[in-house]
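Milestone M4 deliverable, item 7.
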Amino acid sequence: MSCGDPHETDCSEVLDHLYEFLDSEMPDADRVKYKQHFRECSPCLEKYGLEEAVKKLVKRCCGHDDVPTDLRSKVLGRIDLIRSGETVPEHDVTASPQATPQES
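Output delivered:
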């Protein structure tokens, strides 16, 4: 996504790190840079607003539920795989194999 206007920080960089921005998981200098981009770029600001609204909705609807430790570990592992550029398996490779029905 891009608004077509030149920015100091490219739209693709901002969108690639949008969740880190939303979760305040980035250095303050980067946050300042991204805030400036949102002031200049309405498509990115719109995407930010949408993702922020979804995050708030999920928190409101599911925020009281504790996440099982093993699920959290699996999700974080997948995120690490995606960030490193490795192929993410379609199925959960950490799950125990399911019994297959026997043929009659």
